[in-house]
Amino acid sequence: MPPETVGADLFDAVLDVAHTGRFLPFDKDRRWTATKDERVLLSDVVHTAAETIVPALTTRGDGLVKVYYYSASEPDLPALMHLGERLAKSHRAGVGSRVIWFSDRPDGARGRVMVKRFSPDDERPARSVQPLTECPVADTFGAFADEIGPEGFQFLYQRMKAGHQDGPTLVRVADDRIIGAVGPLTTVAGPDGHVIQQPAYFAVHPAYRGRGHGRSLWRASMAWGRTRGSEVKVLQASRGSAAEGLYVSEGLETHGYVCQA
């Protein structure tokens, strides 16, 4: 969520649905499944003026406990890791546990939390970007997804083949094949009623990076969101990635860094 929408009401709403399997209306994961596969472990939440600790159990696969830490102070990692290990054991989480916290410094961080504010400039057309459904070489999307690998397009491709309509995917073509994509593109009303463009998978084939393909895809996806009333987009970029450099050059705001142990 955008920083200005995060408050006590949102925190209470998260806790209210913790054991129900239901999604909040603006949860990005509701695009993929009917039931939420991560639940907050309410009895182990710590919420004080100095810190908030929110353990959550992901039931997908063998199970994983994530311990989220929020504070202006540095985390006590040994204590948080011990908490995660204890909860993983008690909930039979086969993968174990993970500690996730947020910092205002990039040192050792795995991701950067960024915010895009939409403006009339985002209405500019992008060069040579088209919807996958209108692409003459759409049959090369599967090969692109396989070569990109863990970027998420394999998952999206399988959903497409199963008939799911998750939102449009925009693609870039070169040498008679798809070499870049962004999607699925979706919007949702946030907790304050303002329209949010949700995160999407975004990648350019490694052999074609550094030629402006990613920037064209990004701007086309922003134009799509702008024409549908989007006011803001929140995303996380991997530290040191090509996407992070692109987002910085496009003027996105940085709102902290994500660390993990």
Explain what you see.
With 261 residues, the protein is of the alpha+beta class. It folds into 2 domains: 3-106, no CATH class; 113-255, Gcn5-related N-acetyltransferase (GNAT) (Aminopeptidase). The chain has 6 helices and 14 strands. Strands 1, 2, 3, 4, 5, 6, 10, 11, 13 and 14 form a 10-stranded mixed sheet that branches. The protein is globular, with a radius of gyration of 19 Å. The mean pLDDT is 95.
From the 3D structure, determine the CATH topology of the largest domain. Aminopeptidase
**Rg from Cα:** 19 Å
CATH superfamily annotation of the largest domain: Gcn5-related N-acetyltransferase (GNAT)
The major beta sheet can be summarized as: 10 strands, mixed
**Unreliably modeled segments:** none
Helix content: 10-25%
- Helix and strand succession? HEEEEHEEEHHEEEEEHEHE
Counting DSSP E segments of at least 2 residues, the number of strands comes to 14
- The number of helices is 6
User: For the record, what CATH class of the largest domain applies?
Assistant: Alpha Beta
The helix/strand class is alpha+beta
Distance between the termini: 23 Å
Count up the domains. 2
> What is the averaged pLDDT score?
95
The second-level CATH architecture of the largest domain is 3-Layer(aba) Sandwich
Please state the overall shape, judged from the principal axes of the Cα atoms: globular
> Per DSSP, what share of the residues sits in E-state strands of 2 or more residues?
25-35%
